[in-house]
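Predict the assembly for these two chains.
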Amino acid sequence: MSDVRMKGFARRTTVAQALAWLDGHLCILAEEVVPLEKAARRVLARTIVSSVNVPGFARGMMDGYAIRAADVQGASPYGPVVLRVIGRSLPGRPFQGVVESGTAVCIMTGAPLPAGADAVLPAELTENQQWIKGGGEIRAVGDVGPGKHVSGIGSDVAVGQEVLPAGRLLRPQDVGLLSSIGLADVPVVRCPRVRIVTTGDELLPAGARPAGYRIADSNGPMLQALVTRDGGLAELVGPVADQPEAILDAMRGPADVVLVSGGSSVGEEDCAPVLLRQHGQLAVHGIAMRPSSPTGMGILDGRLVFLLPGNPVSCLCAYDFFAGRAIRALGGRSVEWPYRRVRLPLARKIASHIGSVDYLRVRLIDGQVEPLAISGASILSSTTRADGFIILPENCEGLLPDAEVEVFLYDDLQAASRHVGR
Amino acid sequence: MSDVRMKGFARRTTVAQALAWLDGHLCILAEEVVPLEKAARRVLARTIVSSVNVPGFARGMMDGYAIRAADVQGASPYGPVVLRVIGRSLPGRPFQGVVESGTAVCIMTGAPLPAGADAVLPAELTENQQWIKGGGEIRAVGDVGPGKHVSGIGSDVAVGQEVLPAGRLLRPQDVGLLSSIGLADVPVVRCPRVRIVTTGDELLPAGARPAGYRIADSNGPMLQALVTRDGGLAELVGPVADQPEAILDAMRGPADVVLVSGGSSVGEEDCAPVLLRQHGQLAVHGIAMRPSSPTGMGILDGRLVFLLPGNPVSCLCAYDFFAGRAIRALGGRSVEWPYRRVRLPLARKIASHIGSVDYLRVRLIDGQVEPLAISGASILSSTTRADGFIILPENCEGLLPDAEVEVFLYDDLQAASRHVGR
């Protein structure tokens, strides 16, 4: 074990430099086609232009009577206008005749407006509804202008209209709209395939009961969940023993992005950086941040590789700073963190080291930001007890009480309410 | 067609009354067990108590030397202390002997602390590292106190500790933590099965090219995406023709919640409310809100049924007010809308009807809230052009320009950035 390798990194890349390298290697993956029912929360690969009008016919928007507006001009309870009902129009079952002056067709919301009619007189503006199949009279006691309560051809979507832009993260209503224009197959950005290689002789498989000097792999399932959150397709490989050939093999499976957890530093047992340097490019190794300084990035077989520290808090932090950014970008998503932000005052002083970006877990207590006391990089429970984290930039010596800070919240908008049903 | 049925609802339930009825019928579903890799974003059904210590052994937290702290007390570059290196401890491969006074064991981050040692002296505080397999000497040029750079037994999680509470929406790091305590199978709240029945003679299947007087079902795929967003398992049935037997059959398939889209009003062709009244309970029908007033709720075969208007904007709005709330609650999630909120000033005046809750689609332009001009309940594209919506309570006559309003944003935190890679 050489002196230099036991004493840590000779120099560290700044977070800004590391991000600059990374951003220079990001692109959006190619498109694939998915069926409509799988399209929500995918990213549109192309701008979608409608080839149809929606609706393709003029449509009544109220329950009432399709009429000629001129017929009922000035109608009122004191001067009603009598119209002869000649039929009805239902959704999908239009009236086939023509509305001549003096006649009306009973129409339901969403039904085609019959030829000859130019407006719908709502049922509320009629009296004496005695319509029997194909006959009877109504009295109009109010009037409507031409076009009233009618949705014209293409009023929702017109032929040739751009309905949704490339890059759109599809919302539920977007999927509905794509359905309405007849798009059964949706061109979306392919999801990045992410290979997660967890390494370490001390690791038991995820969820195994820890025993003796071995611990269960926690980074593997955590990274699976993070990758899924960020729109990637995660494949967990491992735990892999600390043997260079085994790790290299595991890194070389099919993927767009490779994450290696553990053995990312400069110690004798830290294989991954050496492998990446030997077989690919180790572009960044050692980053001026706390935790996660033993993080590496590079290229192997043309694919981005992230070397994430084995300590779980460091792994989470390094994932969020670098790997998650890449996975989101490849999939066409925002590179920004998918965490909500709140600005709140600090409950107490925080010290920070100049020269490194600090990731601090915090709790929100009575509207104030309380840094967690126990916060070692190996203490995963610090991230489950925390409500979120704050970032201190590298030029920050610390912050005073009451300083307003931006908190990134770990929780989700659907975080369970403890008040419902319990 | 009777007069009363053509003229709309005799009276409408208020939104508050409708929600009160609904909340009285919500409970959390039973638990099921899922493997760890499926646990993220599920809701914990029980508080989890650890049956193990993590770590189960004292662990070195730095690369360096496991020592007796007393040995190096006062060591400095001017008064180094020489220690004999008697072996090494690697993660999963502990040193089996005992650290006696005057000796040290080379230790890597995460490796078990050998017996006899009580601290780790970081490599940075040593000189003359000439450790060769099992031999050599180091010079300590700094000191550490007992326990320094050591993570004790149970320092992350202790036996008997409650690690995560019932009702927790599991985060990626939570899944990592559950893995670390050996929980391969996670008890979570079962996902509500939601049967989506879209009805209407005018409907073609989702994604079909509209033709003649028929339109493609847009509510079905939109509801599928909404249900999935809210943690439900969606099954789309339909489109079903406007025939009572067919609709009743479709409503009676296996589910925890049934959504019926279309035919929810009081017209002749509106079968669903009649069916629900005949075969179950139609508890709420007609709600004082715009759009979505022809919304119904009830119980059929012991299951919640939501009658959603066929107009797509009304369908979306009624889903969000009522059905989504129920689906989230059954699955143990927050009943609140999963939309981010921002407070911004109105760009212009808004008029509103007293006596109904209004759902208005808006755009955000230059930091101001601009109501959409085209916003009929049939215009689904109004919800894809909008950035979000605002809610005007029933006692609101309208709002003046510059009034600050709360906007619920449709988009997701991962909404694609148009600046990356394009």
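Chain B touches chain A through 137 residues (CB under 8 Å). The mean pLDDT of chain B is 92.
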